[in-house]
Amino acid sequence: MKILPSYLRRESAKTFAVIFSVLFLITVGTLFADTLRAIARGALPSSMLVTELGLRTASVLTILFPLSLFLGVLGHLSGMYRNQEAVMYHAFGLGVGSFLRFLMPMAISFAVFMLVLSLWLVPWASRQSDILAQAARKEVSVLGLKEGEFQSLGDDDAVIYVEKIDADNNRFQRIFLARQTPEAVDVLTASYGYQFEDEASHQRYLALFDGHRTQGRLGQLRYQRIHFERADVKLPRLRGRAFSVEEDGKTLRELLASESLKDRTELHWRLVPPISVLVLVALAVALARTSPREGKYGNLMIGLLVYVAYVNFLALGRALLEQGKLPQWLGLWWVHLAFLAFALWRIWKQDGELGPFRARKLGPC
Asked: How open is the CA angle 193-196-202, to the nearest 5 degrees?
């Protein structure tokens, strides 16, 4: 009885590949737009676009692989029920639990891959993203400014112009900065300046030297002009970060040796992708059974609702662990076991007297 298991795994893998390709393209497009925004904000140099996009894609795979496998198995088995193939196999004595047993080798292979990806590859990608971003920081001028261009400074009411930028020394030559409000206009010019960050507030400033400041009200001829040796201009905060290098960038050894609550929670969270592969495959088999008279996408919608509930409970468990409201030994296992128990109960209920993993011995086919 080798043809049916190979057929199930092969066709489920094909459906998985199609679904994964679509979701991957959509996700990469979103990451590409997000990375471009980071470059426009000045958080990344343009030379890091492809590298940063590739590194950030690794973390997305921990979400897309389990979801795509779940939808692939669910979609293929549902098609078998609609086409009466599964009914024929049941008539031969194969229960729903047999489908799960046939798909387990593929699920275990995916789980091992996800284990390597989640515990080692994704943290490595996060660390590399941080290293490259730190090394390329000299290439990033203040808020992505370019030489010889008028540019908006955080909002439409502020404009800045820099004639020359010395990125190695973080120095700007001949600066023009104008801010306009409904009541007044404020213009600053300086011979040179540089950017610095306040250590206490982490607020960035632009220090201007040897310049003039002109202030006045619109529509009036009375303007005030003063000379200054130095003037510090607060810069708008960059919204968001281009990368994350905190708990998710730590190595497995560091997490195991740490007593921090966040590090312990991060360790539990990294085990979610490989375990979720096994749980989701069991859920897909349990939810796939359908009648030809039922809606074509009825069980698919039910499956998506179950998946959303599963992910939300995992997120809730993570939040409770970070707050110390759940013991660390319990972790997120209660979520996995609850949904796995539901899947096995549903399979057992469908199989009836055959039991969840028992099938009649058939001849070669």
From this structure: 150
At 127 the pLDDT is 82
Angle between helices 122-135 and 49-82 (to 10 degrees): 150
What DSSP string describes 36-85? HHHHHHTSS-GGGHHHHHHHHHHHHHHHHHHHHHHHHHHHHHHHHHHTTH
Q: Are 118 and 15 within one domain? A: yes
Q: Which residues contact 22 (CB under 8 A, 6 or more apart)?
A: none
Is 260 contained in some domain? yes
Cα separation, 145 vs 153, in Å, equals: 9
In the block, tokens 């409000």 appear at 181
Is the confidence at residue 138, as pLDDT, over 50? no
**From 30-39, 235-244, 285-294, 319-328, the region with the lowest mean pLDDT:** 235-244
For residue 310, name the pLDDT band (cuts at 50, 70, 90).
very high
> Looking at the structure, do residues 104 and 196 belong to the same domain, yes or no?
no
> Is 10 in the same domain as 34?
yes
Residue at 88 is within a domain? yes
Q: What SS3 class is residue 171?
A: strand
Q: Are residues 305 and 196 in the same domain?
A: no
95 burial level (CB within 10 Å; 0-12, 13-18, 19+): buried
**DSSP 8-state assignment for residue 118:** I
Measured at the CA of 104, the angle between CA 314 and CA 299, to 5 degrees, comes to 60
| Mean pLDDT along residues 48-63 | 83
The pLDDT tens digits of the residues spanning 140-152 come to 444 556 678 787 7
Whole-angstrom Cα distance, residue 21 to residue 40?
A: 28
**Total domains in the fold of the chain:** 2
> Do residues 343 and 277 both lie within one domain?
yes
Residues of the domain holding 296: 3-136+243-354
Half-sphere exposure of 332 (CA within 13 A, CB side): 26
* pLDDT per position as a tens digit, 276-303: 999 999 999 999 987 766 666 678 889 9
Task: Among 197, 213, 234, identify where a domain stops.
Answer: 234
Same domain, 223 and 321: no
Q: Does 28 have pLDDT greater than 60?
A: yes
